[in-house]
Design a protein that fits this description.
Blueprint: H1 2-20, H2 22-28, E1 33-39, E2 45-51, E3 54-59, E4 67-71, H3 74-84, H4 90-97, E5 100-104, H5 106-114, H6 116-119
Parallel strand pairs: 1-4
Antiparallel strand pairs: 1-2, 2-3, 4-5
Protein name: SCP2 domain-containing protein
Length: 123
C-alpha cells in the first residue's frame, strides 16, 4: 500500500512540475518516454508518460514502456525508495542482489535521475 501511495504522489508531483516549473518543462523538451515502476508480480504498477510540457500517470501496466523498474515486492520497493534519500547506493545494491531489475533503455532511467532535484524541490 505504501509503495502504491508513493507512486501516486510521484505522479501528482511530476504533473505539477510539468505545468509550473520552467526548468522541469525544459527537461521534457524533445522527450517521449514511458517509465514504468512495478513489482515483479505486477500487482503494484504505475507508469509515467513524459512528453513536452506534460507528464501523465496511470496505474497498471503499460503495453510498451520505454524503461521499467521492477522491484522484488512492494515492501522492498518502499524500503528502498525510503533508504535512497540517505543512501544513493540503495538502488545499485538492490540491482546487484537481483531485487531490482531494469528492462528497456537504461538511458531513460539515467535521464529520470537528473529530474530528482526538481522532485525533491532543490532546483
Amino acid at each position: 500500500m505504501k509503495f502504491r501511495l508513493i507512486l501516486l504522489v510521484l505522479g501528482w508531483r511530476l504533473a505539477w512540475l510539468a505545468r509550473r516549473h520552467p526548468g522541469f518543462r525544459q527537461q521534457l523538451e524533445h522527450r517521449d518516454v514511458v517509465m514504468q515502476w512495478r513489482t515483479f508480480d505486477g500487482r503494484a504498477a504505475r507508469w509515467y508518460h513524459f512528453r513536452p510540457g506534460h507528464v501523465n500517470s496511470k496505474h497498471g501496466l503499460h503495453p510498451n514502456p520505454s524503461v521499467t523498474l521492477n522491484f522484488k515486492d512492494a515492501d522492498y520497493a518502499f524500503r528502498t525508495l525510503k533508504a535512497s534519500g540517505k543512501n544513493q547506493m540503495a538502488f545499485m545494491e538492490g540491482m546487484q542482489a537481483g531485487h531490482i531489475k531494469v528492462e528497456g533503455d537504461p538511458g531513460h532511467l539515467m535521464w529520470f535521475m537528473t529530474l530528482m532535484k526538481f522532485i525533491a524541490g532543490k532546483a
